[in-house]
Automatic annotation (TrEMBL):
Organism for this UniProt entry: Actinomadura bangladeshensis
Source species, domain of life: Bacteria
Family matches, as Pfam families: Usp
InterPro entries (UniProt xref): Rossmann-like_a/b/a_fold (IPR014729), Universal_stress_UspA (IPR006015), UspA (IPR006016)
Domain UspA: from-to ranges: 1-136, 150-274
Family: Belongs to the universal stress protein A family.
Upper lineage: Bacteria, Bacillati, Actinomycetota, Actinomycetes, Streptosporangiales
UniProt-recorded name of the protein: Universal stress protein
């Protein structure tokens, strides 16, 4: 059974842009699309009179139907379904992530570099989902207009295989190249540059052989990882980062300061790939 690409639908312009990206990936990877709208207001707990609840459910079903028709208009070959969930939207998306290839959300917020471009639903989803999460920013282009570069931020650790593999697979399907970015956060000597470049090469070992059609550029930067990734996002189709799962059950993932900064300020969509090792 093919796992679907899930996209959160809430009626905002951000959600429609997320739908563009989700539908594009679904077509390229021949996967079904599942449009999900979650809301606690839909709970049948007596809070809302029955007639009002039926009207509310009808409105939200119409919203999902409109989104589905939009996706099918762009890609008539899509296998697209909808699901209305009477639960907090973040929890609804995390629940769907158990059996999904990817969860896609649109970013929300006040705007501006100093403002938060990423809302609580997206943050909760990125931190708790069991599959990769694609976060589509308000400034993201349409998929067909996106640059042909996918940026990955590499620390040189042993548990980075999941997101590197995801990025190479996506680059192969898009016809994109990879920019492997290793930022050290300060000035370094020529000798240290050689050492850092060797570590970056070791992190990429084997991927060029498995993905011979994917061109790879390497960059060792003296900027902090967050600064380097945000800067690189200006000319990228995607920034792909990894997240380590916390030890405590149900605690979610330790997104870390770098991932938080990238999610809030990247100029292109960001993919957070959990490490399940």
């Amino acid at each position: 059974m093919r796992t679907p690409i899930v996209v959160g639908i809430d009626g905002s312009a951000h959600a429609w842009r997320a739908l563009d990206w989700a539908a594009d990936r679904a077509v390229r990877h021949r996967l079904p699309l599942l449009l999900v709208h979650g809301s606690r207001a839909l709970l049948d707990d007596g809070t809302i009179p029955p007639d009002a609840l039926r009207r509310l459910v009808g409105e939200r079903e119409d919203l999902l139907a409109e989104a589905r028709q939009y996706a099918l208009k762009l890609h008539p070959e899509l296998d697209a379904e909808t699901r209305l969930v009477p639960a907090d939207p973040g929890r609804a998306l995390v629940e769907e992530s158990e059996h999904a290839d990817l969860v896609t959300v649109g970013s929300r917020g006040q705007g501006g570099f100093e403002g938060l471009l990423f809302g609580s639903v997206g943050l909760y989803t990125a931190a708790h989902a069991r599959c990769p999460v694609l976060v589509v920013s308000r400034s993201a282009p349409y998929p067909s207009d996106a640059p042909t570069e996918i940026v990955i931020g590499i620390e040189g650790l042993d548990d980075e295989h999941a997101f590197i593999e995801w990025a190479f697979g996506e680059a192969a399907s898009r016809g994109s190249k990879i920019l492997a970015l290793h930022a050290v956060g300060g000035e370094f000597s020529p000798r240290r540059r050689v050492i850092e470049d060797l570590e970056l090469s070791e992190s990429l070992a084997g991927y060029r052989e498995r993905y011979p059609d994917v061109a790879v550029d390497r960059l060792v930067s003296d900027r902090t990882p967050a600064q380097a990734l945000v800067e690189a996002s200006k000319n990228a189709a995607l920034v792909v980062v990894g997240a380590r799962r916390r030890r405590a059950p149900l605690a979610g993932m330790a997104l870390g300061r770098v991932n938080h900064t990238v999610l809030h300020h990247a100029r292109c969509p960001v993919v957070v790939v959990p490490n399940h090792d």
